Amino acid sequence: MPDSGPAASDADSGWSGYYDITADRPPRRTTLTALAGRRSWLGGLPATAVDLGCGGGRDTAPLLEAGLAVLALDAEPAAGKALQARFPEAWDSGRLTFRRSDFSSGGLDLPVSGIVNASFCLPACPPPRFGRLWLQIAAAVAPGGLFAGHLYGPNDSWARRGGDLTILSRRDIDALLAGWDPLLLEEEETDAVTPRGEAKHWHLFHIVARKPA
Fold it and tell me: What is the pTM of this model?
């Protein structure tokens, strides 16, 4: 079963409840793989991370545990409240910063960081804006740093809804990562349910890639 994020239709259905549902779930494998990759090549990488679409902090947790300062971004103010409650010491010390941001609209101002994490959030970016978003993400990854995240493939059941989801083929993914060194590039198709109980066919790309130095 994919370790998923919320449904595209969940935006108005109570994010605090969603964070409660997923609070005890472990960090995503992509995030942990990126951290392992960072440990294997520390040379000059900033001790900082960006967590896009941070939600309640399930991936923020291992980033903080690794000693990184984290800028967490999410469009939902409930995410900031969840992070403050979950990580009070990091919050009070300034090592964890939250910024409310609809990153899919463009105009991000991201610090150059050793890791940019984007678990299950990038497909929510409308296709006309995705290219710009990716350029901003790529610019925020320090040379030799890592991107970790997920994208949806054309067989995903949400792809048939149409609308504003970005859906990419394997060829698209390969073009996106041209020049990067993939540490993890795994394509998955499976039938499962979302955290809210919606039956769904998943077509996912799990991605961890190192930016060329």
Answer: 0.90
Residue found under tokens 């409240």: 81
Q: Which amino acid is at 174?
A: D
pLDDT digits (tens, 9 = 90+) for 16-75: 667 767 667 899 999 999 999 887 666 678 899 999 999 999 999 999 999 999 999 999
Tokens of 195: 């955290």
Amino acid found at 26? P
